[in-house]
Amino acid sequence: MGLPNIWRLNVRSPQIEECIRESLFAIDQLPRNPPLRRGDILLLQLVREEAAKRGELDRRIQFALIFDHTEEDLTGEISRLHWPQAGKVWRCILHCSDTVPTAPFSLEQFPFGRQYLGQANPQYVQPEHADLLRPLIKSSEQETRLVEFEPHPLLVQIRNLDRIVERRAVVAREHVVQRYSTDTWLPQALKSLYHHCCQICQHDFAPRYDMPYSEVLHIRALREGGLPVSRNMVVLCPNHHSIIRVARPSFNRELLRFDYRNGLREHLELTTHLT
Questions:
Q1: Between the CA of residue 146 and those of 67, 185, 206, 213, what are the distances in Å?
Q2: What is the mean pLDDT of residues 39-59?
Q3: How far is CA 159 from CA 39, 166, 168, 232, 273, in A?
Q4: Among 47, 154, 163, 257, which residue's beta carbon has the most beta carbons within 10 A?
């Protein structure tokens, strides 16, 4: 079937939190040519006037939904349940299998002309344009291209993934931990953010071995209730990763420091994603 299609969805700020948390969207009419397919990517684009008020015209898109199936909302019950403040109902509910972060961007930044400025939902993105957008969307295939991002957009994308996990954790903490514990994108993104340098000793394997290498540690283990979010992760060299797992020092979050039982104190020297 080839690559999934990409669609643009305009969404208002009162509705976007529910879309992110529940992986849902609502539209009045399904597209026919082409139709929506399972796995298609739906870009959540904040409407222009609200993005302008927030100072986010250059990052109207920060999240995407992965489409799964539709459900008719003949009575409007589903619409009112999920978007009571909208003051309207929609005929079609789009159930999605996941919410994923994107690098922050706006379609206006690309040479697409006025093609995607309308209010119609969903708006099909032409294949030649979709190819330009795919590297900006979190996916398993993207991990090898993370280094292409500048630190600031990558950090925003990392925090957007945190936001997805945290929104869902309020509803079903156990489900979230199970679902995200095997997601390798976030650890890879953090490694790329620090160029594989240890956050404690700043050691970098690349100059000597011509190959970057680092490991990621959960400050509070998932089995102990820690969430798989960036503030619960640090990038370490193998030595620090191993000794921290064995010695089990406490972590002083205010000072960003590991405190060992023998009195040793080790500060994080690289703290971009924790400050």
A1: 24, 9, 17, 15
A2: 92
A3: 24, 10, 14, 12, 8
A4: 154
Find the mean pLDDT for residues 140-161.
Answer: 59
Do residues 143 and 187 make contact, with C-beta atoms less than 8 angstroms apart? Answer: no
The Cα 93–Cα 71 span in angstroms is 5
Question: In the numeric block, which tokens belong to residue 2?
Answer: 């080839």
Long-range contacts of 213-219 (CB under 8 A, 24+ apart): 213/238, 215/241, 216/187, 216/190, 216/191, 217/241, 217/244, 217/245, 219/251
Query: Among 103, 136, 169, which residue terminates a domain?
Result: 136
Are residues 127 and 54 both part of a single domain? yes
Write the CB contacts of 209 (distance below 8 Å, at least 6 apart in sequence): none
**Residue 266 and residue 184 share a domain:** yes
Q: Which of 46-50, 160-164, 194-198, 221-225 has the lowest mean pLDDT?
A: 160-164
Structural domain for 14, as ranges: 6-136
The total domain count for the chain is: 2
206 and 116 in a single domain? The answer is no
CB 99 within 8 A of CB 9: no
pTM for this entry: 0.66
Are β-strands 123-124 and 6-11 bridged in parallel, bridged antiparallel, or unpaired?
antiparallel
Cα–Cα distance, 10 to 107 (Å, whole number): 12
